[in-house]
Amino acid sequence: MIHQWWDEPTAGEIVWCHFPDDIHPRPKPRPALILTVFDDDAPRFTVRVAYGTSQRTTTLYRGEFSILRERNPVAYTAAGLSYDTKFDLRQTLDLPYSTEWFSVPPAAPHGQTPKLGVLHPSLVRAVQAAYNAANE
After folding, report:
1. Are the beta carbons of 133 and 86 closer than 8 angstroms?
2. Ramachandran region, residue 22 (left: φ > 0; alpha: ψ -120 to 50; beta: rest)
3. Alpha helices of 1-136 — where are they, by DSSP H?
4. Using CA atoms, how far apart are residues 61 and 135, in angstroms rounded to an integer?
């Protein structure tokens, strides 16, 4: 199977990712937060992504932060999420930004791209705290 490469993303984008389980993409795509974009092989990009889940979003552990509809509706809307979601900065991977690992989300809010939305500036402190805690 030939995989296509997506155009250059930006750190802080929330994307539709087939976050891998061992060495295979998971069949169920999920939100992931792009933390870093590596452009050494441009136009083929590699991204460092943090795992996102809609499970137990109000119970946060070291290295996690959440985006909740009721608590921060503006950030929730900017993220393009369908459910309250938490991201785990202890679960990060570097993945090729290609159709092997990323796909167009339902409703394609940003056209034919994996982008769901972006991290709202009001969440920068929460992300920084989670990042620091994950790397202690």
Report:
1. no
2. left
3. 73-79, 124-134
4. 13
The C-alpha atoms of residue 27 and residue 85 are separated, in whole angstroms, by 19
Size of the chain in residues: 136
Q: Which of 8, 63, 74 is nearest to 36 (CA)?
A: 8
Structure tokens at 110: 């940003």
> Over the chain (136 residues), what is each successive 10-residue block's mean pLDDT?
89 93 75 95 94 92 95 95 95 94 87 94 94 89
Quick one: DSSP state of residue 11? Answer: T
pLDDT at 36: 96
Angle at CA of residue 16, ends 94 and 107, nearest 5°: 165
Which H helix or E strand runs over 13?
Answer: strand 13-17
